[in-house]
Amino acid sequence: MSFRVGFGIVAATTVGLLQSCSPPKTERDRPAPVPLFNGVDFDGWKVDGTAAEHWRVVDGELDFDGVEGDLWTTRSFEDFEVRLEWRWEGESQGPRRRPFIEPDGDYRLDEDGEQVTMLVEERDSGIYLRGNSKSQVNLWEWPAGSGEVYGYRTDGSMPAATRAAATPLLKADRPVGEWNRLAIRLVGETLDVWLNDQHVIVACELPGVPESGPIGLQAHGSGIRFRDLLIREFPIEAVPPMSDDHVE
Prior knowledge:
With 248 residues, the chain is α+β, with helices and mostly antiparallel strands. It has one domain: Jelly Rolls (Sandwich), CATH 2.60.120.560. The protein contains six helices and 15 strands. Strands 1, 3, 4, 6, 11, 12, 13 and 15 form an eight-stranded antiparallel β-sheet that branches. A five-stranded antiparallel β-sheet has the order 2-5-14-9-10. The protein starts with a helix and ends in a 15-residue tail after the last strand. The N terminus and C terminus are likely disordered.
């Protein structure tokens, strides 16, 4: 079952679909997902003067023109799983050299101690978690792929295990112009990220991440669209075990 059909439809269709399915008991026991975006307007989102100039609702999708203005939810969230689809649109920010990242979170160096880079068509955005730019799940064209948690990976004061876990295990991005499926689960200080059904960030501990805060869609100079935004909140007694069973 595809993400868009099975999990990514606006409120009325989502509710009907969930009522008509017979998921496993472990899935039924979890809180139901609800839309973060209704596909019609910015209800539930804080749109300041800058964001209002550069974000639109087009064909049931959130469309950003790549200029400026982050978009934030009006509500704050604690433990949750958010799912959405995104794709790049429009021109890139131009060719730029971007570094390779090693599994331990450090940059790859050549025999002379210089960073190893490759030329990419620069595109950049991200998902802010709990109102915090440091706990941002990056969407970009770097060699490492999307899902990376830049603020934690590059913080030398963080434990080595955190810096390594903040680096994607593989690049799972689809070609520019195609839709990507993203699932982000943050429970306590533990972050997991799935990109196109690949578990790219696994049990990454984020020391000091706020306990609660809004979710933000980052404006970072690249045109991008989002659709099918859903969130499932986890009460303390209903937090599920970490597994891949939600990407069915």
